[in-house]
From TrEMBL:
It comes from Mucilaginibacter myungsuensis. The keyword Membrane applies. This is Divalent metal cation transporter. It is a multi-pass membrane protein. It comes from the Bacteria. Keywords: Membrane, Transmembrane, Transmembrane helix. GO terms for molecular function: metal ion transmembrane transporter activity. It holds the Pfam family Nramp. GO terms for cellular component: membrane. It is found in: Membrane. The chain crosses the membrane at residues 37-55, 76-98, 110-133, 142-161, 181-201, 222-247, 267-295, 307-324, 330-354, 366-391.
Length: 395
């Protein structure tokens, strides 16, 4: 692979991870938590960026040096553990994909006036078309780049015209007046939780960008992915903050749409349709690809018919959404679900980084490991706190 091809795949992997993270849930979660926490949500975003970067650097480095997908590393740490991790990630990926299809359906509903269900079916066909294409790897990379750039450009426009209070946002980002464990868990889970943690790293495995010699570019890819997702998160936060400050409450039925509509009228509403469709369809691609990559090595049939299994995954996700509906509630729930998975998956990867049979002579930097352990402990603590909050009305 030439240096130019290498760089193209690396950027494609970064956009795949970022596009997976910048899904419809991302839009809805950002709007909802900005309304709840105001400018103090900026602190949650900065905290999530730090946690995201640490998680991604650890995972991308360990997987590419080991030259094994995460489930095989987990099985090498403890027999059977990879199947458990794969089960969690697969279920989380399915939950995310239902939300992604819901978001894509909402986007076409806004743009074309068709029902959300019809929009979901059309979007599923588009996603399937990418995987049916004989050079699906290149198509996926290009699609992720185009959709990622489109989302950032449109969010930048809306953030500008909503005129957010920048001084207050900067102050509360380092000195918050409010805080929410649920917001952090949901935002981190929605950005690097579940399958998203592994989307870019597994793409690099397929492209054969592996080994210690590639660690510098792997680092660049991981940080680029977090950077792209973080820019989008900050733009959406500023847009929502500007709208809430200048126009008041958001529509609870579709909070993300009302950010764009209140900022730019009917044009803004149509822009929201474009953004949430782009977010939904690109996340469907990332979710389906990565979720199936977690079970692909378990049976020769899945390896042989990988594309067909991915297509089936998308069709099942679409069918479940059509059966249950309620897109906004789904989009809020999936981030929290995947936030629970992160401490388990990252913890296993950190253990694998110190097993010679997995990484041979490679030495993971101690500072990176310690930071990774801190993320595991923090996310586990927050997960327990959120579960206690959820159960407290019942107990």
């Amino acid at each position: 692979m030439t240096k130019k091809q290498n760089w193209s795949v690396l950027i494609g992997a970064a956009f795949l991870m970022a596009s997976s993270a910048i899904g419809p849930g991302f839009l809805t979660q950002t709007a909802v938590f900005t309304e709840q926490l105001g400018a103090s949500f900026g602190f949650v975003i900065l905290l999530s960026i730090v946690l995201d970067a640490i998680a991604q650097l650890n995972v991308w480095r360990i997987i590419t040096v080991a030259d094994k997908p995460a489930q095989d590393i987990a099985n090498a740490v403890f027999p059977g553990l990879g199947y458990f991790i794969s089960f969690l990630v697969f279920l989380g990926g399915m939950a995310f994909n239902i939300g992604n299809i819901a978001g894509a359906g909402l986007g076409l509903n806004v743009l074309l006036g068709i029902s959300v269900g019809q929009g979901a079916m059309i979007s599923s066909v588009v996603a399937i078309g990418i995987f049916i294409y004989k050079e699906s790897g290149k198509a996926m990379d290009m699609f992720a780049k185009v959709m990622g750039c489109l989302k950032i450009f449109l969010a930048c426009y809306v953030a500008y015209i909503s005129a957010p209070p920048m001084a207050e946002a900067a102050l509360r980002s380092v000195n918050p007046s409010q805080f929410s464990f649920t917001a952090v868990l949901t935002i981190v889970g929605g950005t690097v939780g579940g399958y998203i943690t592994f989307a870019g790293a597994h793409r690099l495995l397929d492209a054969r960008i592996v080994g210690e010699q590639n660690l510098p570019v792997v680092n660049q890819g991981a940080l680029s992915a977090i950077g792209l997702a973080s820019v989008m998160r900050l733009l959406l936060f500023l847009a929502a903050l500007g709208v809430i400050t200048n126009f008041g409450k958001l529509d609870p039925a579709n909070p993300a749409a009302s950010v764009f509509q209140l900022a730019a009228g009917q044009v803004g509403y149509k822009l929201f349709g474009v953004i949430i469709w782009a977010a939904g369809i690109s996340s469907v691609v990332g979710s389906a690809y990565t979720s199936i990559s977690f079970i692909r090595t378990f049976h020769p049939f899945i390896q042989r018919f990988n594309r067909e299994v991915i297509v089936g995954f998308i069709l099942v996700s679409c069918a479940i959404f059509l059966a249950i509906g309620k897109p906004v509630k789904i989009l809020l729930a999936v981030g929290a679900i995947n936030g629970f998975i992160l401490p388990i998956a990252l913890g296993v990867m950190l253990i694998g980084a110190y097993r010679v049979k997995i990484i041979a002579s490679y030495k993971q930097p101690l500072w990176l490991t310690l930071l990774g352990v801190a993320v595991v402990v923090t996310m586990a603590w927050m997960s327990v706190g959120v579960i206690i909050q959820m159960l407290s009305p019942v107990l």
